[in-house]
Amino acid sequence: xxxxxxxxxxxxxxxxxxxxxxxxxxxxxxxxxxxxxxxxxxxxxxxxxxxxxxxxxxxxxxxxxxxxxxxxxxxxxxxxx
Length: 81
Fold this sequence. Notes:
Layout: H1 2-18, E1 22-29, E2 35-42, E3 48-55, H2 64-75
Antiparallel strand pairs: 1-2, 2-3
Helix pairs in contact: 1-2
């Protein structure tokens, strides 16, 4: 899990450098639920374009590769004007 999360952080930084339309927003709440929220947001309006919320404390079956692929698609220009 740590390796996938590190890759998401790296892609989030790359997204900001390569995109002028969207940016990544990553929030982690370290309470009993250990909630992780990963979002793609508009730089102009700050509205959510994509959002994934996961409670890590419940040991969910997380599709890390799907989240990574989502970031890669935006880094590659899926929403670049």
